[in-house]
Amino acid sequence: MIQLSRYVKVYPSEQSSEQQLLFSTKKASKALVSPETLQSIKQDILSPEDETLLSRLGMIVEDREEEKREVLSLFDRMNGTNPELNITVVLNLDCNFACIYCYEGSMKGSLYMTEETADRLIEFIKGHFQDHKKSLVVDFYGGEPLLSLGLIKSISRRLKSYAKSRGASYRFTLVTNGSLFKRKVARELKRLGLTNVQITLDGPAENHNKYRPFKSGAESFDILIKNIQETWDLVKIGIGGNFDEKSYKEFFQLLDDLEWAGLTPDKISSIKFAPIVNRPEGDISPVDYMAGCMSSSEPWLIEAEAFLRGEILRRGFNTPKAGPVYCAVENTSCYVVNYDGVIYKCPGFIGKEGFEVGDLRTGIRDYRVSYKLGAWKNGHCADCEYLPMCFGGCRYMTYIKDGNINALDCKKDYFDASLETLVKQDIKYGSHPM
């Protein structure tokens, strides 16, 4: 018997008062249907053509209980066939910036990965690159990873050669403040496998320079713009930005600055603005900055996200579409290696006691309990229409709120308030219903 998927949301259409918009949280697919078609689904009398199309889009299923079981087993199936190994490497905890909200707080210092630790990293990667793996991806992270430029080159040369010997591919990405990403550096790293760079610009120049100055106090905005202008044609450059309740209303002016600088949508791979997140009391980060958020459901944040996302799309820039998310914590082919060789499952937990999952000397230990794997496999989450976009939410956000991850970071209130807007933004600015 044909039924509407439990993971489908039904919204009024803005294109036609005689149609409704279906959105699959499982497939991120969209469809405009008439009330008569919805009634035909309920009565199981769809035409063969409509049944074929809506089934392909994930809007209808024959067995909702079987569909639930499929979603609950999604990570198990993905982990069994995943052809990619993804390793985030924290090369150092040093930085030439003095961001007022720095996520690494008091962990920062002249702390660098040694050649010996890099050797162990290479052996760790080789040991986890099983026969079915076809792609090796390394995300170099910091601190500021380009302060360890020599090590990036050394590691990449060896991994590129290793992957080639296995008939596999190697590529790497950078999360950098952008100040050291000059054209010469970009050329050298591209030859070794660099494909994507993420650079943070915290809004227009005045705001960015206040939030992300150099350690000397000097302004950084103009330098970053110049570096992006000189390198966008070599690798894909994505721009991130961190806003708070005070800054977001002027944040969009950065988009005008980019276009004025010639950095039009065809030259920037994507833009995503995200809120600055506060820290629980007693955490390692700066105690004098508390203007960020503690939950994704805060009313100001929902308003800010819709506003900024709309401005990004309206100008023709790319930004992630509303759809399923797959947390790295549940991915058995995804690890974070700190500069000292200690291994975690998420960059947010670096330095947090109890969240280590091993080290490069001894290997990986069982982390199912410490990271609460599969905590979302319960009746309440399984029946929630948002499960494929949430899977229990972000463990790190739970830690921010509670100081532990014993509870789930339920996103229902957030999606109830925001998803319809996000989906309709995607339709309005280019992602049309199928």
Share of residues in strands: 15-25%
- The CATH class of the domain at 84-314 is identified as Alpha Beta
Relevant CATH superfamily of the domain at 84-314: Aldolase class I
Task: Provide the low-confidence segments as ranges.
Answer: none
Structural class from helices and strands? alpha/beta
Distance between the termini: 24 Å
How large is the radius of gyration?
23 Å
Pattern of helices and strands:
EEEEHHEHHEHEHEHEHHEHHEHEEEEHHH
Name given to the CATH architecture of the domain at 84-314: Alpha-Beta Barrel
For the secondary structure, the number of strands is: 15
Please tell me what the overall shape is.
globular
Strand order of the largest sheet: 11-10-9-8-7-6-12-13-14-15
According to CATH, the fold-level topology of the domain at 84-314 is TIM Barrel
Q: What report would you give on this structure?
A:
The protein is α/β, with parallel strands linked by helices and 434 residues long. Among the domains are: 3-62 and 418-428, no CATH class; 84-314, Aldolase class I (TIM Barrel). The protein is built from 15 helices and 15 strands. The chain has helices at residues 35-43, 48-56, 64-72, 74-81, 115-128, 149-165, 183-192, 205-211, 221-231, 248-251, 253-260, 299-314, 379-382, 395-402, 412-428, and strands at 3-4, 8-12, 20-24, 30-33, 60-61, 84-90, 135-141, 169-176, 194-200, 236-243, 270-275, 334-337, 342-344, 358-359, 363-364. The strands form three sheets. A ten-stranded mixed β-sheet has the order 11-10-9-8-7-6-12-13-14-15. A three-stranded antiparallel β-sheet has the order 2-3-4. Strands 1-5 form a two-stranded antiparallel sheet. A hairpin with a 7-residue loop joins strand 2 (8-12) and strand 3. The chain is globular, with a radius of gyration of 23 Å.
